[in-house]
Amino acid sequence: MRIYSNLKEALNETERELFEMGTKVCPQTMQDKDVKGDKDFETIELQGYAYCITSHGDSILSFQESRGNLTYLDQEFSDRISSQWLNPGKAFFLREQVWNPFLEKNGKFSYTYNERYREQLNQVVEELRNHPDTRQAVITIYDRHQDMQSMGGIRRIPCSMHYQFLRRRRNSQEYLDVIYVMRSCDFYEHFIYDILLTMRLQEYVANLLNIRYGNFTHFIGSLHAYRKDYEDKGVF
């Protein structure tokens, strides 16, 4: 596993490794869309990709340098931790061109992170508060009861599997580490948002516990880039 001192280094090295070691895949579906034979969705993929970032220090600057939409990021995180049921949330309207194709006929998504977070987040915080050495502080996004019925392009399935929080002491300081596991991640469309939203969650929980936030560790089953995106970027 690669270990990076900051987000910028992780972004640059991940793109390089995807370029140098990725293999070609031609998927039949992308979420709930049929893309069989569509050359725009020919894919370069790395399997079982993992890395760790040891500092959040430059994360917002690197995000903005990568043309990330900070207004969307702030609103999406606010939507995710809201006590209200949100589907879609307010963030949808700030990145509508990306998300509108995935709305179902009823005007809602098959799931939102708000719906998956809201019954778990407070319980996880209490577990970390009451049992500082716990290994059980996990927020699960994938729901086998719902999502296994949606495979094969029937409905959208979460790319995120779970977040695990570990409250640990190093060099006399206490830190909150996070391990983020994904089944699938689109490098050019979503990668940096997935990282920043998880870091934001890590910071939020650490602040509630009044401790520092520590390592961000990321495991991805399929890290990939689509032809329509990497040709526009002039890579691969």
Sum this structure up briefly:
The chain has 236 residues and is α+β, with helices and mostly antiparallel strands. Helix content is 35%, strand content 27%.
Could you please say which CATH topology applies here? Thymidylate Synthase, Chain A
Helix vs. strand class: alpha+beta
N-to-C span: 23 Å
Helix content: 25-40%
State Rg: 18 Å
Count of individual helical segments: 9
**Relative strand content:** 25-35%
Assembly state: single chain
CATH homologous superfamily annotation: Thymidylate synthase/dCMP hydroxymethylase domain
Stretches with pLDDT under 50, minimum 5 residues: none
Please outline the major beta sheet. 7 strands, mixed
Count of structural domains: 1
Query: Regarding CATH, which class?
Result: Alpha Beta
Rough outline:
globular
Q: What would you say the CATH architecture is?
A: 2-Layer Sandwich
SSE topology string: EHEEEEHHHHHEHEEHEH
Mean of all residue-level pLDDT scores: 93
How many beta-strand segments? 9
Chart the SSEs and their pairings.
Blueprint: E1 2-4, H1 7-21, E2 23-25, E3 29-30, E4 33-34, E5 43-53, H2 59-65, H3 70-81, H4 96-99, H5 113-117, H6 121-130, E6 138-140, H7 144-147, E7 160-170, E8 173-186, H8 191-209, E9 212-226, H9 227-233
Parallel strand pairs: 1-5, 8-9
Antiparallel strand pairs: 2-5, 3-4, 5-9, 6-7, 7-8
